[in-house]
Amino acid sequence: MKAGRARKIAEQVGLYATVTAFAALLAFPFYWMLLATFKTDRDLYDLKNNPLIFNDHLTLANLKLLFEKTLYLTWLRNTLIVGALVVLITLALALPAGYALARLTGKWGERLGIGIFLTYLVPSTLLFIPMSRIVATLGLQDTLWALVVVYPSFTIPFCVWLLMGFFKSIPKDIEEAAMVDGCSRARAIVQIIMPISLAGILSAVIFAFTLTIQEFTYALTFITSSGQQTVSVGVPTNLVRGDVFFWGSLMAACLITSLPVAFLYNLFLNRFISGFTLGAIR
């Protein structure tokens, strides 16, 4: 009895210790960015100082440089605009495509799904040259519309594959029963299938928006003016000048940009995980 209780306590202690270690490891980058944001340059560059604490007084100079000397707020606005439009386009195309491939009988549905997913694996470093020709032909150089047109080329394939696997986990009997009761297929999809698929849809939204925020190659290639840049390009190109790195302002920009994304992931973590796991059942 006592041995079993001791073993149970030891397992719980080991579990909490492991979780605490992983939590500290994952939280450390945010702690480091927070430190660098409010540290003075003297505190940052002095090798004799302890890098994990504030050795000097706190400063707001890094934030002042970021918000007053750069177009950071404009870059944030551009990123949100592009992200919202790309997510809408991705959902508009990936939802019907994923559903159609999930309900396609035979091996063709699976083969087409794998083929679409393989297009996502093609790196952007191989595609930015032909993509630039398309952008130039459309007359979208140095505009946010260039990114809105190009970004779905890698968000749609993965989201189609993800949603296809999720739709396959939903029995056909559900929509067939709704159709027997008088619903059209479109109405059954909207009123029955979509609410059940909320976890998978949310996973696709988070994935597409995250990719939009962190994409660098296309944004650097198609956008040249500072006022049209997104965060992923505007921050490094304007805060890294030759061999001069504005570390405090760089870390402040990264912290402000990453916190909402981290909060979004944690807020919908259960639904996000269920979307991936259910989509992987088949």
Examine the coordinates and then state which fold CATH places here, giving the name of the CATH topology of the largest domain: MetI-like fold
CATH architecture of the largest domain: Orthogonal Bundle
Sheet-strand content, in percent, reads: under 5%
Helix content: over 70%
N-end to C-end Cα span: 43 Å
User: What radius of gyration results from the CA coordinates?
Assistant: 24 Å
Q: What structural class do the secondary elements suggest?
A: mainly alpha
Structure summarized in a few sentences:
With about 280 residues, this protein is mainly alpha-helical. The protein is about 80% helix and about 0% strand.
Model description:
This protein starts with a helix and ends with a helix. A hairpin with a 2-residue loop joins strand 1 (240-241) and strand 2. It contains 15 helices and 2 strands. The longest helix is centred in the first third of the chain and has 37 residues, at 2-38. The chain folds into 2 domains: 25-59, no CATH class; 71-279, MetI-like (MetI-like fold), CATH 1.10.3720.10. The radius of gyration is 24 Å and the shape is flat. The chain has a two-stranded antiparallel ribbon. With 282 residues, it is an all-alpha fold. The model has no long low-confidence stretch (mean pLDDT 84). The chain has helices at residues 2-38, 41-45, 61-68, 72-103, 108-120, 124-138, 144-150, 152-168, 172-180, 185-196, 198-214, 217-222, 231-239, 247-267, 269-279; strands spanning 240-241, 244-245.
